Amino acid sequence: MFIYKVCTETLWREAEREGVFRGAPVDFQDGYIHFSTASQVAETLAKHFAGQTDLLLIEIDTGRLGAALKWEPSRGGALFPHLYGALKLAAVTRVVPLPLGAGGIHTLPPLPA
């Protein structure tokens, strides 16, 4: 199974240099790294990243995260994946740009269900 992190290219390139992703400011504030499932990504983009450019979609293999990954209720009681710890880049399976399309909506690549 895969989960997804939306972040700026600047933050991601820093993670690549360090060999680990420690999170975005909201992640530090909340004490865990926020992720979305394939079915949650579009809503996450619309709610938290509307109109932003320079974004990347990071795909993560949940099987490589271990016990630090927790599924917790959030928006409307839906379960969201949260990582309590740093994201090791070995868990990342692909990194995809998220360009703005028609109407300022991000264009998502096909995502496995």
Automatic annotation (TrEMBL):
It holds the Pfam family DUF952. Signal peptide: none annotated. SUPFAM superfamilies: ADP-ribosylation (SSF56399). It comes from the Bacteria. InterPro entries: DUF952. This is DUF952 domain-containing protein.
